[in-house]
């Protein structure tokens, strides 16, 4: 069984698929047992066909597809549920995350305490447009103030987390943007690790600042409510 599952959700990313898979393999092959789980969220281009063609060349690659388009959070969760590794690394399918940072996150985990269940990437030098950087900065400031999750960049796609801890989190659309706060709600600790960030080389972004803001307001209120209503206790078996 693989020690690590790399989960990559994609929608209309046919030109980014092979370069990103090649980089994942270069970063991990020979270092540890791993698998790559791509989740196609009903792409309208031939992303799925490209993935199927690569399976013969990359034995670590697994491909699953959604029957109906469901969004990034559901794609991530579908990939984690299908994964066989006890730890999950996630990457955005657009190639802006650098797979070479996965070993850095693994090293941080190996040197960290057991109660840390999420190592979140922190894009210190973002390679996005000025409007996206400003929007992200404002959103992170508001989120941090409301949720107090001590995370400078919750929207970074590259993360490393414990599979079992993730599947125990409350599930809702857009939950992938709030993983540090949700992990902390469950009693675990999280750590942010500086990572590389790259400009998109091909394809187009699936989001804009307006739709992010509109859904973000409702999501923030919902996550804040979940945190307020959380209740945890230790248990022991009586033998």
Structure description:
One of its GO terms (cellular component) is plasma membrane. One of its GO terms (biological process) is lipopolysaccharide biosynthetic process. Residues 5-166 form the Glycosyltransferase 2-like domain. Keywords: Cell membrane, Glycosyltransferase, Lipopolysaccharide biosynthesis, Membrane, Transferase, Transmembrane, Transmembrane helix. It comes from Tahibacter aquaticus. This protein has eight helices and seven strands. The chain is an alpha/beta fold. It has one domain (4-228): Spore Coat Polysaccharide Biosynthesis Protein SpsA, Chain A (Alpha-Beta Complex), CATH 3.90.550.10. A seven-stranded mixed sheet has the order 3-2-1-4-6-5-7, sandwiched between helices. Helix 2 links the parallel strand 2 (34-40) and strand 3 (61-65). It starts with a strand and ends in an 11-residue tail after the last helix. The mean pLDDT is 90.
